[in-house]
């Protein structure tokens, strides 16, 4: 249990944090001691951290628990917007970054790793939203998260390179647009190189079987990656445009064929009606 989870467990009034008195803090300490006896997940270090945060980092703590994305991430919740205070930040980005480094960095990396491994579009979308706040994260945490992302892409490339079936069930997440939105937060020369390798493999599979829905979906979604280099951006967007054009051409061909068939049927019906029967 981390500091934010403990805060929520104790049902502390969020709106009173900035005016917490020494007496209020003492009451929280007593409440924590009672909870520790009945909840083994509450450890001494987390308890000490909460009290320290209430004493010396009130504004930073209030910012984190008032931010829907951060609060839900650290508490594994999904509370709606109307559950949060309309709090205007009064503390610097650097102080928030220090607060997270001091109390929440390990959970930030650990929870990120867990959600990244779940391979669902929904989880990628939430991590993308989380990384929109990365200006509040310590550099070391961002670096560790980038290593997790790079490692995942390396594994994807190795599995795809060894593929001998048409649709890989273990890496179906590469068809999600949200996966590439997430990758964009770590765009660099190194990641661009990995994405270029992925593009090469995916295009190769598509050429072998052009009607494969999975690889068509992957190529379209890859265009959502905001590359470090403009040439890769152009290549990804061009690939998607080609597929979209092909689909439009096929649709036009279908429409033309249907119209042609209808015209033939109408002609035959008209001709049949003119036949003289004896």
Which range best describes the helical content: under 10%, 10-25%, 25-40%, 40-55%, 55-70% or over 70%? 55-70%
The total of helices stands at: 13
Anisotropy-based shape:
elongated
Q: What is the quaternary state of this protein? A: single chain
| Topology pattern, helix = H, strand = E | HHHHHHHHHHHHH
- The N- to C-terminal Cα distance equals 94 Å
Task: Please give a handful of descriptors for the protein shown.
elongated; 2 domains; 278 residues
How would you summarize the topology of this molecule?
Elements: H1 3-9, H2 22-38, H3 44-56, H4 58-66, H5 68-75, H6 93-103, H7 105-117, H8 121-131, H9 139-161, H10 177-183, H11 189-208, H12 213-222, H13 230-273
Helix pairs in contact: 1-3, 2-3, 7-9, 8-10, 9-11, 10-12, 11-12, 12-13
How would you portray this structure in words?
By secondary structure, the chain is mainly alpha-helical. The chain has two domains: 1-103, no CATH class; 105-278. It has 13 helices and no strands. It has helices at residues 3-9, 22-38, 44-56, 58-66, 68-75, 93-103, 105-117, 121-131, 139-161, 177-183, 189-208, 213-222, 230-273. Helix 1 (3-9) crosses helix 3 (44-56), helix 9 (139-161) runs parallel beside helix 11 and helix 12 crosses helix 13. The longest helix is centred in the C-terminal third of the chain and has 44 residues, at 230-273. The model has no long low-confidence stretch (mean pLDDT 88).
